[in-house]
Each structure stands twice: as C-alpha cells, then as structure tokens.
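Design a sequence for this backbone.
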C-alpha cells in the first residue's frame, strides 16, 4: 500500500524535495503501514514558498475576477472527475471510510472551488455620497495568506482555505497536518493543471514549528488555522505580534438538545451522525446530547440498537461505515477518555473498547447519565464517544449548553418551531442546526464563537476574511484649508 507523492512540497507549480528536513511518515491507521515518507520543510524551503507566493500575487490580483474564477471552476471539475482517486488517497491517509470520503472530502473541496470561482466576479465595493464630494470602497486581497490545517478533513480544509483566498486575489502557503500530508499536494497539482499560475498555491510539509514559521513570517498578511484551541491561542498570538488578520477554526464541545416532541428516529440518527461520522473526529460534533427526560429510555434503546449495527472495518471496503481513528496517539487519547468516563460513574450503554489487534479502531461508544461536571462532558474527545445527559426544562438546558468555553456548533430537535428558534436564539454557537446536524454546505458561513474561533469560512462571510476594504475619498470641489 503506497501513496508516495513525487516529492514532499509543491512550490511555484512544481514538486520540490529537500531531504535535509526531518522525516514525516504517513501511516494508514487501519493497519499501521507506512504509505508515504516525506521531509519537513527547512527554512530554505519555507523561504522558497514565501518568495514564490509574493512574486506571483500582484499579477494574479490584477487579473479580471472572472478569469480567476474560471481557473478555480476548472479545478473543481478536475477534482470531481478524480473524486474516486482522491477519496482513496484521503482514506489511506486518514483512515476514514471510503463510503464517506467519496461524498464528503474532495466533493466538498470541489464545491468550495466552484462557489468561490463563481463568487469572485460578483464582488463589488460601495459608493458613498458625501454631499458634494464622494467616496468609494475597494475590496483588495491581503497578499500572501498562510493556511495551517488539521488532520480530520485534510483535503476539505485545504480547499476551504485556498478557494476564497485565491478567488479574491491572494496567494497562499499551506501547511497540512503532519499526520495527513498527502491530499494538499494533490490539490496543488490540480490547481496547476487547471491553469493557476505558479506560486499562488504552495504546500510545505512540517510539524508545529513549520506552522509557527509561517504565522510569524513578515511576508504573511493573514493566517488561517484549523486546529485545536491550544494551537489557536499560540498561532493567534504569533499573528497578533505582526498585527495580521486571522481566521481561527478551532475545537468544540457542542450541545445537541432533543426535546420530547422531536421525531425520535431523526433525532437518534442525527446524534449518531454527530458522534460517529469520521469516527467522531469532527470539530462541530454534538458530543453533549441533552435528552429530555420523558423520552430518555426510548432514545437510548433506539440509539443502542442502531449503534450495534454500525459496520466497522477496512475503510477501503465501501460497505464499511466506520474506520479507525487517525493515529495510534489519537486512539490512546480516546481510550483514556472512555476509561475516565467509566471511572467518573457514567453508565456505559454500548461500545467502550478498542477493536482488533492491528489498527486504531475504537467501538462507537455511548455513555448515559452523564453529568455536566464530568470530564467527558467538558473536554473535546475527538473520537466516537457520545455523552447523553438528561434535562427537564428549556431554560435550564440552554444555560447548561452554554456553560462551556467553546461555542462552535449546536443542534435542536423539536417539532415546535417557535421553540426551536427561541432556543437557537440563545445558544452561544457559530453554527446551529434545527432538526438536522453537521451539514455544512459551502453556501452557509461556518465558524465559532468564544474559544472556538474567530472569523468564518464559506458563504458570503468568507469575503470579509480574505479581503480588506480600501476607502477612497474623491474630492470634487476646492480644498477648504484654514491656512
Ligand atoms: P492541532 O491544533 O494539533 O494542529 C492543527 C495544525 O496546527 C497542524 O497542522 C499542526 O501541526 C499545526 N500546529 C501545531 N502547533 C503549531 C504552532 N505552534 N504554530 C503553528 N502551527 C501549529 O489540531 P489537530 O491537527 O490535532 O486537529 C484536531 C483539532 O482541530 C480539534 O481540536 C478540532 O476540533 C479542530 N478542528 C476544528 C475545525 C473547525 O473548523 N473549527 C475543523 C476540524 C478540526 P502538526 O500536525 O504538526 O501538529
């Protein structure tokens, strides 16, 4: 099983290798096989990428937006045509089942390229009447943006950052997570093939230190990170030192509130999606499932029955519904939380163990009778571990849902739409779902409140985060000077 790219980095439209960097191994987590060996970017490699990005950006920004958009839309088409190949690559790198990657990863990346490709030519400024004189505004790109990605949706994260950055005239230097280094290189190849001029999208590999070097580089005007809250604090601080713009897409411990009048099958299905899709490794997951007491038993019965039927196994088999966790380290972390849940007295409804000898498989796990103060109800686990908590009153559950430093997402299940809107109006979360969960179409802005982040990806909101406004005052009369 090999997925060795031509070289570690993709800079100025070409693969670049420098074997003096530390080795990075990409491991297929279903069996522990090394599928690719790459090298971390050295300072010289980072410099090469930055120089290329800076040199290419001005000419790109000067192009007609419709032309920039056309290239991105062409890239979207190539990506869709290669969906299977890209999905297999993503499955090898992350362990996510092919059943998922075929519909959720390259497909979502292609949506972003298509959406922002179409958006680019529609961007306009304002004209502002000033009673005689006037002003107008221009939306200008930042210049060079740094993108730093997490390992759970490597292709999607790279595309969600590259598409708006490039559409609005920026260049980007992107560092994937060292755990999943491969698909960003495939995106760079596709963009080049679609006609993106050299230097505009560069991929450099590395661990945290490479990300830190990008965030601190004086040539970078904007930093976009997808990662954990602790990393977010560090990267935000580095960006602050250079007064750089940031987008921070960070972690969460999101609430999913199920009222007694909810459609139970849909609510159970959503809770499973919100905890077991991608083996639970999704930032927006609804990992605190608050169930109103009257339906608690029925909810747990249905949940346990459906969870028992989840097909775990070889992620390359399209019948598999759940693959391994991304790495042995992540598996150990998740098993540690499961042990803690048991020790704290939460009731294990199903799962709770590692599966098999080889590979990083953890059973889909449900804890009931979870209390707010338990560690499994407070910390982001990033694995297939659902915590079910009881509630009685609407006001009390809203307060409990909000009693966290996170504020990424939230969900409400009820047939009472007035209640749904009332509750959503009070939830401190950047993205809320009513009678749905974890759907993130490119048309809808996505991002966090509180410690879950700053800025928004996708939708019209992304324009705010990949352009800055220039105001131009137009004097149409004589200058009124008091001198
Ligand atoms: P990390 O925070 O560990 O890493 C994120 C990225 O930052 C990686 O590329 C990492 O490199 C890099 N990095 C680490 N330290 C630094 C540093 N000091 N300066 C610059 N870059 C650095 O997150 P994970 O990769 O473990 O991903 C899981 C986390 O991501 C979860 O908390 C999850 O909630 C969050 N996430 C948020 C999403 C959102 O949109 N809100 C979406 C997906 C995930 P390296 O790989 O070497 O560690």
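Sequence:
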């Amino acid at each position: 099983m090999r997925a060795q790219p031509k070289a570690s980095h993709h800079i100025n439209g070409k693969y670049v290798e420098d074997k003096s960097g530390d080795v990075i191994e990409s491991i297929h987590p279903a069996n522990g096989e090394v599928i690719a060996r790459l090298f971390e970017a050295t300072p010289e490699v980072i410099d090469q990428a930055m120089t290329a990005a800076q040199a290419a950006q001005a000419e790109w920004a000067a192009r007609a937006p419709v032309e920039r958009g056309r290239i991105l839309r062409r890239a979207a088409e190539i990506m869709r045509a290669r969906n299977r190949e890209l999905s297999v690559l993503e499955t090898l790198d992350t362990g996510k089942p092919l059943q998922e990657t075929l519909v959720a990863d390259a497909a979502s990346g292609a949506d972003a390229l298509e959406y922002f490709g179409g958006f680019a030519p529609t961007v306009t400024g304002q004209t502002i009447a000033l009673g005689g004189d006037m002003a107008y505004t221009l939306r200008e790109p930042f210049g060079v943006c740094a993108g730093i990605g997490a390992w759970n949706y490597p292709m999607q994260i790279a595309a969600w950052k590259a598409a708006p950055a490039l559409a609005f005239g920026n260049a980007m230097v992107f560092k994937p997570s060292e755990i999943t280094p491969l698909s960003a290189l495939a995106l760079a190849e596709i963009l080049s093939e679609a006609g993106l001029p050299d230097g505009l999208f560069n991929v450099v590999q590395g661990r945290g230190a490479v990300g830190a070097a990008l965030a601190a580089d004086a040539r970078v005007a904007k930093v976009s990170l997808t990662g954990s809250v602790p990393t977010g604090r560090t990267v935000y601080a580095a960006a602050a030192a250079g007064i750089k713009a940031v987008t921070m897409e960070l972690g969460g411990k999101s609430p999913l509130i199920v009222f007694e009048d909810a459609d139970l099958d849909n609510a159970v299905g959503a809770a499973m999606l919100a905890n077991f899709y991608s083996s639970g490794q999704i930032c927006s997951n609804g990992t605190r499932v608050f169930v109103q007491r009257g339906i608690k038993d029925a909810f747990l019965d249905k949940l346990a029955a459906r969870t028992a039927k989840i097909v775990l196994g070889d992620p390359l088999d399209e019948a598999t519904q759940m693959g391994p966790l991304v790495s042995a380290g992540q598996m150990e972390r998740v098993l540690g939380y499961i042990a803690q849940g048991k020790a704290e007295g939460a009731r294990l409804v199903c799962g709770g163990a590692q599966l098999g000898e080889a590979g990083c498989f953890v059973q889909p796990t449900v804890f009931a009778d979870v209390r707010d103060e338990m560690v499994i109800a407070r910390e982001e686990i990033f694995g297939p571990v659902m915590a079910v908590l009881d509630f009685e009153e609407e006001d009390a559950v809203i307060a409990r849902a909000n009693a966290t430093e996170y504020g990424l997402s939230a969900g409400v299940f009820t047939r009472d739409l007035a209640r749904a809107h009332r509750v959503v109006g009070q939830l401190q979360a950047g993205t809320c779902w009513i009678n749905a969960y974890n759907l993130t179409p490119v048309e809808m802005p996505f991002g966090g409140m509180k410690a879950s982040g700053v800025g928004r990806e996708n939708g019209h909101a992304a324009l705010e985060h990949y352009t800055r406004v220039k105001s131009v005052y137009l004097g149409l009369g004589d200058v009124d000077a008091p001198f």
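The CA atoms of residues 259 and 292 lie 5 Å apart.
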